[in-house]
């Protein structure tokens, strides 16, 4: 496989860092109910830290993608497969941005935010969205509940699109016998 068919090293690193962050956050979200209250708070703080980090990484990934042309799909791909892949990528980018943003809004409306400052990885003080944090208590409660629900619903959409993305890559790799995984693996 020629190097022109592969993603750049930076794109590969960003892809896998984002994938790892999302995977870890999925595990934290799914298992949070099994922790004690004290441990759950630590896991929630880690979840927030990873989410904000993923938001930064996906912004870098988008900038990289806009300034570096990705490799073309192999010519053997059917038109619907190319359309599905492009659609999945756009959906992933949208969801990977919306997930941390809705979580950030949800957290900014947290009624006990003063008792639980947002500190990324317990080292970097981070801000809450002041226009939300400074709302009256009733509105803030409504925003907290609404964006918590939106965040949860978007997570299900993300799981579905991620599954389609992974299954598509595996189909091309193992059924169609195209070196798909090698395009995103160094």
Describe this structure in words.
By secondary structure, this protein is mostly helical. The protein has one domain: Fumarate Reductase Cytochrome B subunit (Up-down Bundle), CATH 1.20.950.20. It is 70% helix and 2% strand. A two-stranded antiparallel ribbon has the order 1-2. β1 and β2 form a beta hairpin. α1 runs antiparallel to α2, α2 packs across α3 and α3 packs antiparallel against α5.
Uncertain runs with pLDDT below 50, 5 residues or more? none
Task: Tally the structural domains.
Answer: 1
Main β-sheet, in a few words? Answer: 2 strands, antiparallel
Tell me the name of the CATH class: Mainly Alpha
Structural class per helix/strand content? Answer: mainly alpha
CATH architecture classification: Up-down Bundle
CATH topology: Fumarate Reductase Cytochrome B subunit
Q: Give the strand order, joined by hyphens, for the main sheet.
A: 1-2
Give keywords.
single chain, 186 residues, mainly alpha, Fumarate Reductase Cytochrome B subunit, two-stranded antiparallel sheet, 6 helices, 70% helix, elongated
Q: Outline of this structure?
A:
The protein has a single domain (3-183), classed as Transmembrane di-heme cytochromes, Chain C (Fumarate Reductase Cytochrome B subunit).
Chart the SSEs and their pairings:
Elements: H1 9-31, H2 37-67, H3 79-108, E1 119-120, E2 124-125, H4 130-133, H5 137-175, H6 180-183
Antiparallel strand pairs: 1-2
